[in-house]
Amino acid sequence: MKSQENKLIIGVADCSKFINYSNWMSDGPDEIEVVKLSCEDGNFNAVKRCHGVLLTGGEDVHPRFYNKPEYLAYCHKDDVREARDQFELELLSYTEQNAVPVLGICRGLQLANVFFGGSLIPDIPSWGKFSHAKLADGKDRYHSIQIDPASMLRKIIQQKAGFINSNHHQSADKVGEELVVTALSPDGVVEALERKDAASKSFLCLVQWHPERMEDQLSAFTINIKNAFLDAAKMNKTCK
Asked: How far is residue 34's CA from residue 31's CA, in Å, rounded to a whole number?
């Protein structure tokens, strides 16, 4: 067994499905320690041990954080937690200041877009687009996406298009400063974001779908993203 010092430490934001993300990160040949980063536990300082941070899905981002408090009416009333928003925005501030690789999934993309000064569509159907939420039977919806051929995401996935799962009712609207859209659904919903100059700073990959629970875990839209994030975390560990 590898020593504690040799473990790759990945911080995972707490959410109702935390165990799914934790298991996904831990499933592989490398010995990985997952650290739960939770506003309820008040353990912000735990991020200082982490070589990479995964921002997970979950609640709607409170629209006051992107200066649209009037959008609160479009949010799910029982699915807004400002304390979590604030905690994870502070995590992003730390990762930016300390060049810690970040993978953002679903809400993680939305929160990161807000962090960089962007805004959100609070309810996709109300903005005149098809629903991107789960199906009536509770299963994830699946749809196609197109990927920007000049993007870091394209280099990671090595495909120009594909099918991904979908379960969200909010999405990025105005794109944050320093970010660029790298994947779109057929109806124009933002499916991925990254830095405008991806090579200029630490790894930042933001995807709207859920790679941790794709039906095909060998799909490039899940395994390649996971591996790229872990490779960036390993590089960060080496540099520390």
From this structure: 10
Query: Is the CB of residue 61 less than 8 Å from the CB of residue 83?
Result: no
The span from the CA of 180 to the CA of 118, in Å, is: 11
Structure-block tokens of residue 150: 């000049």
Q: Over range 184-194, report the average pLDDT.
A: 97
Q: In sequence order, which residues have a C-beta less than 8 Å from that of residue 175 and are 6 or more positions away?
A: 113, 118, 181, 190, 193
Tokens (6 digits) for 9: 């430490």
In whole angstroms, what is the distance from residue 29 CA to residue 129 CA?
A: 41
Q: How far is the C-alpha of 161 from the C-alpha of 147, rounded, in Å?
A: 6
Active site residue 50: no
CB 170 within 8 A of CB 125: no
Q: What share of the chain is helix, strand, coil (3-state, %, to 5)?
A: 35, 25, 40
- Domain 4-239's class? alpha beta
Rounded to whole angstroms, the Cα distance separating 214 from 217 reads 6
Helix (H, G, I), strand (E, B) or coil at 62: coil
pLDDT digit string, tens, across residues 126-171: 999 999 999 999 999 999 999 999 999 999 999 999 999 999 999 9
Encode 74-134 in three state secondary structure.
HCCCCCECHHHHHHHHHHHHHHHHCCCCEEEECHHHHHHHHHCCCCEECCHHHHCCCCCCC
Q: Which two tokens stand for residue 107?
A: 């809400």
106 catalytic, yes or no?
yes
Catalytic-labelled residue, pool 106, 132, 169, 191: 106
